[in-house]
């Protein structure tokens, strides 16, 4: 039996642990969907401690860490940046990344982390959450749809030297009283 998850904002001291966790979570998520070398190249570029430290220190980003029994179990990054034109909802904010460790999928931690994402969005004055997702990542697509996200368009994503058009999903930021409805 696991303790309830604990959430906190990342600090620069978390950069190395977040980089290692993020690299593993990314590789686990895409290992059946993409070329192993392309995954390794992407991880080497995007999940280094200095890169993650820069994200943590970036004032446009909020990096949430989810801990279970003193183990990093997941994270989310919410980023203030312009939304693609297809996102029509008011005051949008980008759910840039959300990942769980493989051993924590299917235990309700994703829902709890998504509730925290909505809380961050509310604190930042956002009314719309948007994200891009790889369409072959059907588990993620189903998760987002359970939380009211609907496809509104697409955007370019560079991976493995190729440009893909990832679906863009958007949803209204939920008020706090809807926490239990998720």
In short:
The chain is an alpha+beta fold and 182 residues long.
Write the layout of secondary structure elements.
Elements: E1 6-9, H1 15-30, H2 36-46, H3 49-57, E2 61-68, E3 71-79, E4 92-100, H4 109-123, E5 128-132, H5 138-146, E6 150-159, E7 162-172
Parallel strand pairs: 4-5
Antiparallel strand pairs: 1-2, 2-3, 3-4, 5-7, 6-7
Shape descriptor reads: globular
Task: Please compute the radius of gyration using only Cα atoms.
Answer: 16 Å
**What's the number of extended β-strand segments?**
7
CATH superfamily: Gcn5-related N-acetyltransferase (GNAT)
The succession of helices and strands, N to C, reads EHHHEEEHEHEE
Q: Please, how many domains?
A: 1
Derived structural class: alpha+beta
For the termini, the CA-CA separation is 23 Å
Give the C-level CATH assignment: Alpha Beta
Task: Describe what you observe in this structure.
- With 182 residues, the chain is α+β, with helices and mostly antiparallel strands.
- The protein has a single domain, classed as Aminopeptidase (3-Layer(aba) Sandwich), CATH 3.40.630.30.
- The protein is 33% helix and 31% strand.
- It has a 7-stranded mixed sheet, with helices on both faces.
- β6 (150-159) and β7 form a beta hairpin.
- The model has no long low-confidence stretch (mean pLDDT 89).
Give a quick set of tags describing it.
globular; alpha+beta; seven-stranded mixed beta sheet; Aminopeptidase; 182 residues
């Amino acid at each position: 039996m696991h303790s309830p998850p604990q959430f906190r904002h990342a600090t620069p001291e978390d950069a190395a642990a977040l980089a290692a966790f993020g690299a593993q979570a990314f590789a686990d998520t895409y290992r059946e969907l993409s070329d192993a070398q392309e995954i390794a190249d992407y991880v080497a570029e995007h999940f280094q401690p200095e890169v993650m430290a820069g994200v943590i220190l970036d004032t446009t980003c909020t990096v949430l860490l989810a801990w279970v029994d003193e183990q990093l179990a997941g994270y989310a990054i919410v980023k203030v940046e312009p939304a693609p034109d297809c996102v029509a909802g008011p005051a949008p904010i980008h759910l840039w990344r959300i990942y769980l460790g493989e051993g924590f999928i299917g235990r309700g931690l994703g829902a709890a982390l998504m509730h925290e994402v909505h809380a961050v969005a509310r604190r930042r004055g956002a009314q719309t959450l948007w994200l891009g997702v790889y369409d072959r990542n059907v588990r993620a697509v189903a998760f987002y749809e359970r939380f009211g996200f609907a496809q509104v368009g697409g955007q370019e994503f560079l991976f493995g030297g190729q440009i893909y058009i990832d679906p863009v999903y958007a949803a209204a930021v939920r008020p706090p009283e809807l926490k239990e409805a998720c």
